[in-house]
Recover the amino acids of this structure.
């Protein structure tokens, strides 16, 4: 392990032993590669490989993770052919400009003391190639085992590969592997999971062929076998990982036992390790969202491990999916069935998760909250990938840390997502920070979100921020409402005072049984039917709070029952600790007593695209009624009088919760402007229209850079 970097605002000193995580921080072997601990940085698509900067952004992104303790990083998917790209921001490994950028990334990782693995990738029918052309200028078309489209392909039907083209694709994997070895990569990983091309060949859902590449299970898996054989021959003794599906979670897919047999077969063809993925993009079983219990897919990896051990294979097994806390990783590894665990998004949220956890400084970890909004959701539409709780992710080269030339005194007003983001960046760069927060604790809207069942991890960000701000010497004034006079002496001010619930302009909205969403979330709701006015993200959160149990173990049992899956209560201790002190005595409502109303538009607007369907599905399963296209006529002591399709009706309600949006809260802006005090407005204080935490944290970071350069 390398020493932690000094003078970067992240802390200093070499890593120390972690007696609480002995298995996690024990060495292991990946083929010929000896690694100092058992946490792998799993593959994350970032699009940085396509940034025209000579590889600077990609190198900075990886370097910071190695400086934070990462020993082995798996790259995002590097396509082996042009038609194998997942989208316009995917790189083709063998293209000269890509090779130069990757060389910079490899060198950066090695210089920092880490190792890096190239993931060899082909999207197959998942390729989104609209407007892309090949080297000859011809329009690219997705290819697949058979001409079976998928819903998100916007009507595109993949072309079935000919037998000769299948062989050519095998050769393309081998050529890409050779290029990776030539660049100095320390290992290669073949992507054969998550519904991409190799996985498509393995499944009768997408492989309808009757030639040597389709038919029974052995012929369907022959493409995977030939790719692994070719890659092994191409790279010699370089360590080879194959990421296969532990369970496709698709109707008509192979039984998981078939993939366990495939794992043994691939290990026999030269795979040094099997990394276990879960699910397809089109699966209707959630796999990575916040509602998925921590470590929910451990059984899939253990099943493959058992199959390998049964045939005496020495291949290592790497588990993945919904591990966010290294204490859970320790529990999983402690069972003795796995060799390593791959974490991806947690390294977006906190590049120093390993260094902090090794010191048992778990409370200081800025935990991945499983929202998907700035990472997976963006990657699916070719937008720059980052992280809601760490907006520097993917922008490390643009926003470097380092010793400041001039130390500025900056005030931050508001300790919600935007204010925390600004204050942390300023303090990490050595500026003198004073943060004013009128509430008794940091968090703002995150503190509210953390009270929603399934969102307990939102409490980690303010907890970690408070710890780091204290360590960096920032002055945090809780329970303090700033005045213009308080702010007069600072070099700059960032107003991040957030939002307030928008009042409902409907007769009867002032009745005593009408609550705004903040009151309902903080103090609960009395017994009896509840009508929620407003079906955006906040309204859906309130409904979830009413019908979902607070106990994480009970929710995990419900999750398993709903999707017919096993679950493990021993991997939920971090979740249990999060909810225990905040939800005691919370009332659980039958779904039939909860109604969510919306004037127009989709329910759950504001929730990320990969999470929205999961949350709404859970509410429907619970029996919650969701009614759109309504006009609010009046709130009465008995309920809410609405009109729909010209017909009036009274919805009974003992309580009405108003979730009608938000208004900006920036009472100091005019005073500061009049006094000539320099300030920046960020987040909801700047504009409450469609504000979300992704925008808020990014604006906080940007303002911090402008105020004190």
């Amino acid at each position: 392990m390398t020493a932690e970097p000094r003078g970067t605002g992240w802390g200093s000193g070499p890593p120390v032993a972690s007696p609480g995580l002995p298995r996690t921080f024990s060495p292991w072997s990946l083929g010929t590669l000896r690694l100092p601990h058992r946490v792998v940085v799993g593959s994350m698509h970032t699009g940085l490989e396509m940034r025209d900067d000579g590889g600077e952004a990609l190198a900075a992104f990886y370097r910071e993770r190695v400086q934070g303790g990462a020993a082995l990083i798996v790259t995002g998917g590097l396509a082996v052919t042009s038609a194998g790209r997942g989208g316009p921001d995917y790189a083709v490994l063998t293209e000269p400009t890509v090779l130069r950028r990757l060389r910079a990334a490899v060198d950066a990782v090695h210089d920092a003391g880490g190792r890096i693995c190239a993931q060899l990738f082909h999207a197959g029918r998942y390729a989104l190639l609209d407007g892309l052309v090949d080297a000859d200028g011809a329009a690219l078309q997705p290819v697949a085992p058979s001409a079976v489209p998928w819903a998100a392909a916007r009507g595109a039907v993949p072309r079935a590969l000919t037998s000769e083209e299948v062989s050519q694709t095998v050769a393309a994997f081998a050529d890409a592997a050779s290029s990776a070895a030539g660049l100095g990569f320390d290992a290669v990983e073949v992507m054969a999971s998550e519904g991409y091309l190799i996985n498509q060949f393995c499944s009768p859902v997408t492989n309808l062929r009757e030639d040597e590449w389709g038919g029974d299970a052995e012929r369907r898996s022959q493409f995977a076998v030939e790719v692994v054989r070719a890659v092994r021959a191409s790279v010699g003794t370089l360590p080879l990982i194959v990421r296969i599906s532990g369970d496709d979670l698709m109707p008509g897919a192979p039984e998981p036992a078939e993939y366990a047999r495939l794992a043994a077969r691939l290990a026999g063809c030269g795979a040094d390790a099997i990394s276990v993925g879960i699910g397809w993009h089109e699966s209707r079983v959630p796999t990575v969202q916040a509602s998925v219990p921590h470590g929910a897919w451990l059984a899939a990896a253990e099943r493959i491990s058992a199959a390998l051990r049964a045939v005496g294979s020495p291949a290592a097994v790497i588990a993945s999916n919904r591990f966010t806390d290294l204490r859970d990783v320790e529990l999983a590894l402690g069972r003795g069935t796995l060799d390593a665990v791959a974490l991806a998004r947690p390294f977006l949220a906190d590049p120093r998760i390993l260094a902090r956890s090794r010191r048992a400084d778990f409370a200081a970890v800025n935990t991945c909250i499983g929202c998907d909004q700035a990472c997976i959701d963006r990657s699916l539409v070719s937008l720059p990938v980052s992280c809601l709780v760490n907006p520097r992710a993917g922008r490390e080269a643009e926003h470097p840390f380092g010793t400041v030339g001039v130390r500025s005194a900056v005030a931050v007003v508001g300790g919600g997502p935007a204010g925390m983001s600004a204050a942390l960046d300023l303090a990490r760069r050595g500026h003198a920070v004073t943060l004013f927060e009128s509430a008794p604790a940091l968090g703002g809207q995150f503190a509210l979100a953390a009270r929603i069942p399934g969102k307990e991890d939102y409490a980690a960000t303010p907890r970690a921020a408070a710890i780091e701000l204290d360590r960096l010497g920032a002055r945090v004034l809780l329970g303090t409402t700033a005045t213009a006079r308080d702010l007069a002496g600072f070099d700059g001010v960032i107003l991040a005072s957030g939002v307030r619930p928008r009042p409902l302009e409907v007769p009867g909205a002032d009745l005593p049984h009408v609550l705004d969403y903040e009151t309902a979330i903080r103090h609960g709701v009395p017994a009896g039917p509840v009508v929620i006015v407003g079906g955006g993200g906040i309204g859906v959160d309130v409904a979830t709070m009413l019908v979902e149990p607070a106990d994480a173990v009970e929710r995990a049992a419900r999750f398993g029952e709903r999707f017919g899956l096993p679950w493990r209560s021993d991997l939920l201790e971090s979740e249990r600790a999060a909810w225990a002190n905040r939800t005691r005595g919370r009332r659980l409502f039958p779904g039939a007593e909860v109604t969510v109303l919306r004037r127009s538009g989709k329910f759950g607007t504001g929730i990320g695209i990969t999470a929205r369907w999961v949350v709404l599905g859970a509410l429907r399963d619970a029996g919650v009624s969701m009614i759109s296209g309504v006009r609010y006529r009046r709130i009465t002591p008995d309920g809410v009088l609405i009109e729909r399709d010209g017909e009036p009706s009274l919805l009974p309600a003992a309580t009405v919760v108003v979730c009608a949006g938000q208004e900006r809260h920036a009472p100091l802006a005019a005073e500061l402007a009049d006094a000539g005090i320099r300030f920046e407005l960020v987040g909801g204080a700047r504009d409450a229209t469609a504000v979300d935490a992704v925008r808020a944290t990014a604006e906080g970071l940007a303002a911090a850079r402008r105020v004190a350069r």
Observations:
- The longest strand covers residues 72-79.
